Amino acid sequence: MKRRNAASDWITEALAIRLAANEAATLVQQLYRSLKDWIQHGELTAGDALPSSRYLSTVLGISRNTVLAAMDRLLAEGLLIARQGAGLYVAQLPTRLNRTELPSPLPVRYSNRGNTLLTLSGALSHGHRAFAPGVPALDLFPRELWQRLLRRHYYHAEMSWMDYQTNGGLPGLKAALCDYLRLSRAVRCQPEQIVITQGAQQAFELTTQLLTDSGDSVWMEEPGYRGAQACFLASGLTTTPIPVDKGGLNPSLAPAGAPSPRLIYVTPSHQYPSGVTMPIPRRLALLEYASHAGSWIIEDDYDSEFRYDTPPTPSLQGLAEQAPVIYVGTFSKVLYPGLRLGYLVLPDRLAEDFKRAHTRLHREGNYPIQSALAELIANGHFTRHIARMRAAYCQRQACLRTALAPAVAAGLQLSDGHAGMHLLAELDNFETEEILVRRANEAGITLSPLSRYYLGENKRPGLVLGYAGSTESELINAGAWLSNAWLNLRQG
After folding, report:
1. Separation of alpha carbons 388 and 382, rounded Å
2. Euclidean distance between CA atoms 244 and 222, whole angstroms
3. pTM score
């Protein structure tokens, strides 16, 4: 038996006390954590000898293999050293690891990009609340059908799907998506032009990384989508806000002397957040401008499926051959946000390079989920779900309008609501906007102020009222609260 010293004696006694406490952790974990803690905090110092494994197992009444397993972990981490024929000793560490001895941490300094991103991000919302924009009807999602598809496609997953993938997405999903987009959105595409991404945000970031340099100009709708704003500003691009009128982004309102944009970001089917639709003549004019200026148009078609009085407007991308348009779509709005799947439809001359860059930067995966989604689309479940959602959203919007009717009768202006998942309420001043947002938050209601969707100084007050993700009863209650709150403020 190895000669014991004073350290060995107290180690044995202390370990016996620790093990007698009957912690939930295994014996190996208890031995390992106890010894590691004593070494890190200086109770055991360099050169201290540990009792032999045979001695510890006998005195503590545990298996010798248990002791050896704990010692092996400490040896592997460099906290112990083995001296041939002499046993185990505490290693010489560069410094003691007691956290209290570390210097006080320096203040956090974020990059300019980081500060911009954090400013635009705002506070995180937690849980479901009425009027949250961009949230689909999760209560209507065909969960049981989806779970059956997932189980089957995980069970029958191909062995090759476990490897790194370089296809830009599962070929079966790209083929099914291509058929759907041709029919529903008049998109001109082949499966080879599609790259599956982890949501629309990743699609924006990939586009920015490949097609722009820091300082390049990007035209943004004013007001516009904050996710795209955050992406472009954090990438160091110079954003030029272009006012939105009744026809969407209006190129003729670009500031005099503004540089030609490298990117033009638009939501032409249903402008976010104003809700207007870009007419065909302006779409054609925008295509012509981009072609002459050498610009790329990012067409964000985030909720084009939800149009209530007329068929969905054909995509901007499909209006001309070889259009300089990068079409971005997402399944977050039509299925559920946690799916984290979106896609790019790229011009032929970009598709292969985007696929290579996406593989290098993001390492595509989740092919069983993509396979299940492909079946959902190919078998018609996807279009049936969209039809069900469209009918439900139309009804939910009607409930919200009914709840807000007293305020509307007194002068509150609401957007037409011909499409989409939200309404826009116009307000007379920013003080009313601020008060309503604050009081709604206290009441457990999410009110998104319109002023936050502007990049420039010419802001307008208002509220973006999401209705898709709330039940009819929630909308009636929250709408009644908002109507009363607005009327009370108006009456002074």
Report:
1. 10
2. 6
3. 0.84
How far apart (Å, rounded) are the C-alpha atoms in residues 354 and 356? Answer: 5
Radius of gyration of the chain (CA): 30
Give the CA distances from residue 239 to residues 126, 236, 292, 298, 492, in Å, rounded to whole numbers and listed in that order: 30, 9, 20, 14, 39
| CA–centroid distance for 450 within its chain | 21
Distance CA 168, CA 172 (A): 11
Segments in 124-170 forming alpha helices (H): 143-155
**164-192 b/e (C-beta count within 10 Å ≥ 16 → b):** ebebbbbebbbbbbbebbeebbebbbebb
At 76-102, the pLDDT tens digits run 999 999 988 888 999 987 665 544 566
- Decide: residue 31, CB within 10 A, 0-12 exposed, 13-18 middle, 19+ buried: buried
Asked if residue 406 lies in contact with residue 487, where contact means CB atoms within 8 angstroms, the answer is: yes
Retrieve residue 214's tokens. Answer: 């820091």
> pLDDT confidence of 3, banded at 50, 70, 90?
very low
CA triple 189-195-201, angle to 5 deg: 115
> By the 8 A CB rule, do 459 and 244 touch?
no
Structure tokens at 345: 């439809």
